[in-house]
Amino acid sequence: MDKGKRIAKLLMESLPYIQQFQGQTVVIKYGGHAMKDEALQKAFAKNVVMLKLIGVNPVVVHGGGPQIGNMLKQLNICSEFREGLRVTDQATMDVVEMVLVGRVNKEIVNLINLNGGKAVGLSGKDGWLIKAQKLEMVIDRKNAPPEIIDLGKVGEVVGIETRLISALEREGFIPVIAPVGVDEKGETYNINADSVAGAMAAAIEARRLVLLTDVRGVLDKEGELISSLTLAGAALAISDGTVSGGMIPKIKCCMEALDAGVEKAHIIDGRIENALLLELFTKGGIGTEIVRVN
To answer: What's the pLDDT tens digit per position in 23-45?
Structure first.
């Protein structure tokens, strides 16, 4: 009886949050440990299905770096990273597309469908969903000319075909998107999944952007969780060195999404079971939210 009362209380506490999200779109970047652990995979699929059943429109953008790395190793193709991005020649691009679009994407789609959802797998090539261009990376250096890094077939988003996502949402489907884009000449590009998720959230005017990571969220210099940041606070955290490394591009993509009109962005720990529901439908959440105003 006590357990039942606790569950009922939790459901009642979540009601106002569920009501806020009725008919709204949430873009979720799915990656990290949540994609590797079987229990977390199943919990994530159920979370996504539940969102759809209660009237929220989830759009999933997934990564797949470890799976790509494993396949490259099996094929004896060397892989190099610069500034956290995989240098992608044509041979690597072929593997990236094969693994992300042909394997990882379909595994996620299948898992969501097995748990009661109606997921559809997409890449940026489908319906010109993700229009891309070659990413030009320039690194500033002290007392020296800037360094220009050629990352090969690594791209950045220049446009999103929003009508495809809208059509799928209207028919009750859950889009699951592999971060592979294409340019006007038909060239294929490997794009950072966080960047795709941020661009997608901005383009389709999502209510929220949620990034699943392998850390608790944004941490202060003492290693404690920062539960909430404004845009100004996020910019300061980058400039004063509070955050560094791989967290910087995550925060930047959240900031860009908010600048484009997304209400809030969340960086949460995907290693926690049901992390998505806990962040969206509980008062305190579990990670870091980034908001435009206090």
So the answer is: 999 999 998 888 988 999 999 99
Q: What is the pLDDT of residue 134?
A: 94
Paired strand residues for 291: 230, 264
Distance CA 53, CA 117 (A): 9
Q: Classify each residue of 245-278 as buried b or exposed e, where b means 16 or more C-beta atoms within 10 Å of its C-beta.
A: eebebbbbbbbbbbeeebbbbbbbbbbbbebbbb
pLDDT tens readout for residues 192-238: 999 999 999 999 999 999 999 999 999 998 889 999 999 999 999 99
Residues paired with 213 in a beta bridge: 269
How far is the C-alpha of 186 from the C-alpha of 183, rounded, in Å?
5
Residue type, 207: R
Angle at 191 between CA 274 and CA 101, to 5 degrees: 70
Q: What is the DSSP letter of 157?
A: E
> How many C-alpha atoms does 47 have within 13 Å on its Cβ side?
26
Q: What is the pTM of this model?
A: 0.92
Backbone dihedral region for residue 280 (phi beyond 0: left; psi -120 to 50: alpha; all else: beta): alpha
